[in-house]
Amino acid sequence: MSDRIWVDGREQTMVSARDRGLQYGDGLFETMAVIDGQIRHLRYHLERLLSGCARLGIEGVDQAQMTQELVEQSRAVTRGVLKLIITRGIGARGYRPPATSEPTRIASLSDWPNHSPEWAAAGVAVRYCRTPLGENPILAGLKHLNRLEQVLARSEWSDPTIAEGLTLDGAGHIIGGTMTNVFIVQRRVLLTPRVDRCGVAGVMRRTVLEAAQRLGIEARECTLARTDIESADEVFLTNALIGIWPVRAIERRSFSLGAVARELLQAL
Amino acid sequence: MSDRIWVDGREQTMVSARDRGLQYGDGLFETMAVIDGQIRHLRYHLERLLSGCARLGIEGVDQAQMTQELVEQSRAVTRGVLKLIITRGIGARGYRPPATSEPTRIASLSDWPNHSPEWAAAGVAVRYCRTPLGENPILAGLKHLNRLEQVLARSEWSDPTIAEGLTLDGAGHIIGGTMTNVFIVQRRVLLTPRVDRCGVAGVMRRTVLEAAQRLGIEARECTLARTDIESADEVFLTNALIGIWPVRAIERRSFSLGAVARELLQAL
Predict the structure, then answer these.
(1) Which of A128, B51, B111, B144 sits most deeply, having the most CB atoms within 10 A of its CB?
(2) Is there a contact between B150 and A146 (Cβ–Cβ < 8 Å)?
(3) Cα(A243)–Cα(A41) distance, rounded to whole angstroms?
(4) For the segment B71-120, what is each residue's pLDDT rounded down to a tens digit?
């Protein structure tokens, strides 16, 4: 592995086994694209992270110090992935958060994922996952460290020509991909699943919704069934690393790459 | 903290920041009571742990080595808590489990919790938590590392006279305490929530259900509403450390300590 790792700003690869991130998944993370030494959408990543800390009651994150470290860690990187984990810090055994604790910052720099270079232009093939997602309004939208559902969903396939798996909640609503948000276009209206009971409020999802507004494309967060996806004019996936991937096939249903995805891609 | 910690059998306090236990909560744990050098219910803990590994696809746990380490770590302990975490091990970035990985074993020995000594005999006061639990059949019953719901539920109160909080699923069914299973008695029939959509299949829960069978007490796993709890003849809580705690009050409703809990307590 070519990763570099920093714990609380110092380059080292080990963390305390008492950290609540390990003990309980008690923390959050961000996965950021670094291009030519710059972190893309840094402000949105930090906003989501800090609003997540507020929702989980993780206090004491020094935003200025954290930002400065991220900027320094990325400076010499031509193209890479910077992942930042913030945990509630070290605590004694037991679910109850300690009265005072110092959050832990774990930053790691990895190679750019080796996705097929054709996927962004030619579109991707996608499958449905059998692993359902649980619903919980108090955790919905957060990019928290409780990711077993995504691990199990992503372990359902190993075919390298399948780029992503779509996940559904227990009621059969489409929530997103294992590592992406999903959008569909119906008669030039952009639709994406709400993230208030399930799913992650992706930074690229936010960016796309804002770009749609600028371009005068009507956009709505809603509930999507499989039938909505399968009758859509266009489907595409987003995340902070891939930007936008048009979907060319979901299992046996194929899609033509659409004008709205292209328009949004040019606007980003 | 007076903890001792062993990682993969060696006494040390640090683990790799690349461990999937930290990155995704990709693992399981057991919390075991050690009394006079003996681990209570060791076989049941190991059975649950290994069946959890099978469900999550965590392979390569050496049961004999793990058991031998636990026995050695407990030998000189008069009374303590031995917690064992098994993670999927170290992996590169991304939800997909690596094709091969070596599970990580993290054992830690802590002091016995300082619960009031009166609680086992005089019963405990309990509250309802507002934090709902998500439902997911693929994770239900497991003691996995995705514990943010329990962390948030346990952070709802700090009053030391409240021993436990009861958690409910999104539909309002009682699931258990933040760290315990719950039982009620209705006309000498023992009822406890099913753990097939939510909750943890506790080792003491299993022990109590087996004791009930030996004693000829009818016992059923079912769906329980708040009204079932509030109309119960007896309510009690179980876990591997506390054994059985009778409940003397849930918020404003008080209960008399019952004959069935006492009978079960004597049988254990």
Answers:
(1) B144
(2) no
(3) 11
(4) 999 999 999 999 999 999 998 899 999 999 899 999 999 999 989 889 99
Residues of B in contact with A133 (CB under 8 A): 136
Taking residue A110's Cβ as centre, other Cβ atoms within 10 Å add up to 20
Specify the pLDDT at position A1: 43
Percent of chain B whose pLDDT exceeds 70: 99
Residue-by-residue DSSP string for A140-204: TB--BS--HHHHHHHTT---TTEEEEEEEBTTSBEEEESSSEEEEEETTEEEEE--SSSSB--HH
Question: Residue B155: which of A1, A97, A110 has the nearest Cβ?
Answer: A97
* Inter-chain touch B135–A134, beta carbons under 8 Å: yes
| DSSP state at residue A58 | -
Residues A111-169 have pLDDT tens digits of 999 898 899 999 999 999 999 999 999 999 999 999 999 999 999 999 999 999 999 99
d(C-alpha B93, C-alpha B144), whole Å = 20
Which of A10, A13, A20, A23 has the highest number of chain B CBs within 10 A, making it the mutation to test binding with B? A23
Residue written as token pair 């022990």: B207
* Cβ of residue B9 closer than 8 Å to a chain A Cβ: no
Interface confidence, given as ipTM, is 0.96
Distance from CA of A218 to the nearest CA of B (A): 32
Q: B96 in contact with A at a CB cutoff of 8 Å? A: yes
Are the Cβ atoms of A170 and B136 closer than 8 angstroms?
Answer: yes
Instruction: Supply the CATH classification number for the domain B4-110.
Output: 3.30.470.10
Contact B134 A131 (CB under 8 A): no
- Distance from B152 to chain A by nearest Cα, in Å? 7
B residues 160..219 contacting A (CB < 8 A): 170, 178-179
Q: What residues contact B97, with CB distance under 8 A and at least 6 apart?
A: A151, A154, A155, B20, B26, B57, B88, B91
Cα separation of A146 and A26, whole Å? 8
Q: How many CA atoms lie within 13 A of A199 on its CB side?
A: 28
Distance from CA of A163 to the nearest CA of B (A): 12
* Domains of chain B, residue spans: 4-110, 119-267
> Rounded to an integer, what distance in angstroms lies between the CA atom of residue B73 and that of residue B132?
37
Put simply, whether A7 touches B (Cβ < 8 Å) is yes
Q: Could you tell me which CATH number the domain at B119-267 has?
A: 3.20.10.10
- pLDDT of the residue at B1: 43
